[in-house]
Amino acid sequence: MRYWLFKSEPSTWGWSDQVAKGSVGEEWDGVRNYQARNTMREMKIGDLGFFYHSQSEKAVVGVVEVIAESHPDSTTDDERWDCVDIKAVGPFQTPVTLAEIKADARLAEMVLVKNTRLSVQPVTADEWKIICEMGGYS
């Protein structure tokens, strides 16, 4: 299993929207960045990801699971763009902010710290464990 991070503006698609989709989940569509698209092409069913609220919150708020591997993005006819489907697994007891992540020396090499603009990104197993502990997620 591998780990990922999915960023979304809560005013566009927030954690509550993801939870409302239930086990059916939702396409993680609209990504128009080659690096993020390529990252999604690496994902496998059962992989887990952090759901990250960008913009004003800037915090990891929950965990999602990949339920469909990379396929054409239904929001465009441009065949260059793919997406995966994800479903909510569970919320963090306490959101983990970007400031807290940046303040933890163990997370200094995390993609989120080094490239805060990338909307879909890999997370190492060690980073996953640390952030889950910080957020009270088990």
Strand order of the largest sheet: 2-5-4-3-1-6
* CATH architecture tag: Roll
Strand percentage: 25-35%
Alpha-carbon Rg, integer? 14 Å
Give the N-to-C terminal Cα separation. Answer: 16 Å
Class inferred from helices and paired strands:
alpha+beta
Which consecutive residue ranges, at least 5 long each, have pLDDT under 50?
A: none
What oligomeric state do these chains adopt? Answer: single chain
Jot down its keywords.
six-stranded mixed sheet; 138 residues; single chain; alpha+beta; 6 strands; ph1033 like fold
Q: Helices and strands in order, then pairings?
A:
Elements: E1 3-8, H1 15-20, E2 26-27, H2 34-41, E3 48-53, E4 59-72, E5 82-97, H3 98-103, H4 111-114, E6 120-123, H5 125-135
Parallel strand pairs: 1-3
Antiparallel strand pairs: 1-6, 2-5, 3-4, 4-5
Give an overview of the whole structure.
It is a single chain. The chain has a single domain, classed as ph1033 like domains (ph1033 like fold). The model has no long low-confidence stretch (mean pLDDT 97). With 138 residues, it is of the alpha+beta class. 33% of the residues are buried. The chain has helices spanning 15-20, 34-41, 98-103, 111-114, 125-135; strands at 3-8, 26-27, 48-53, 59-72, 82-97, 120-123. It has five helices and six strands, in the order βαβαβββααβα. A hairpin with a 5-residue loop joins strand 3 (48-53) and strand 4 (59-72). Strands 2-5-4-3-1-6 form a six-stranded mixed β-sheet. It is globular, with a radius of gyration of 14 Å. Helix content is 25%, strand content 35%. It starts with a strand and ends with a helix.
